[in-house]
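so my prof wants the structure for this chain in the C-alpha cells format not the other one, which i didnt know existed until like an hour ago. anyway here's the sequence
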Amino acid sequence: MTDQENRTKARAGKGEQHMKIEGIGTISKEEAMKILTREGRKAVKDGEITTEELGEMYKLDQVKKASKIGSMEDTFYASYKWVPADLKEQLTPEQLGKLVDSFYECYGAGKNA
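here's what i got, hopefully its the right format
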C-alpha cells in the first residue's frame, strides 16, 4: 500500500467510515460522497472508484470552492496544473486555492505587461 493510500484509507469508526485526507484531516466517507452524482456514489460502492480517488476528488472540490476562479473550469485547470504534485497532497484546500489564484494572476500580469 502506498503512502497516499495510507493517508486516504477508510477506517471503521462507530459504524461509520471515515477518511483521512492529507491537508484536510479526517472526514466521514458520507461527507465525501456528497460531491458525487448518483452514478459516482454507485461507482464507489461497486469499487470502481477507490477511497483514495474519492479523497482526491473531494480535496479538489474543496480547492475549487476556495479559489476565486474555481467555477471557471478550464481557467481553473490551466492554473491548477502548475501546482507540484507534492504540494497538492500537503497543502490545505485554502492554501491550494490561493496558489491557483496566484498562478492565474501571474499569467494575467505577464500577458498584460
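also thought this was worth mentioning. Strands lie at 10-13, 16-21, 25-28.
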